[in-house]
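Target protein
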Amino acid sequence: MPQDHLAAPTALEEHRKLAVFAGEWAGEEVVFPSRWTAGGPATSHVVARMDLNGLYLIQDTRQMRDGKESFATHGVFTYDREDRHYKLFWHDSLGYYSPAPASGGWTGKTLILVRGSLRGNARHVYEVVDDNNYTMKIQFSPDAEGWADVLTGVYRRVH
């Protein structure tokens, strides 16, 4: 019988490490004034799951400001076994999608992913506090050197 060359690869430990962000989360956020929005407090609801043979973390976020949904994102995280970097494919309710995924890796308990586009550079920084808490910040830089916060948040697991 011929070998099945379409068999899915098995998840690596690097893929399994993303599971720390799986679950349902309540976020308290600070949105900083930018060319996209006025600053102020926000809350968010995050639902994330490991899927597709454990190779991807799929994350959906809904942000609320002043009692209305103000922003939503769909993120797909994975580990690229070829270039040995983590990847984040990001889509949001502003209609934005990057021509290439954000790329990066872990330093201790912090996952840092950077992407560039014609609009500038974005850096996503996720820090695991413990099994039930993480922090996240999104930063912007025109030159990938000086970074300014766009969004910061503290996320607590919903039990």
The longest strand covers residues 68-80.
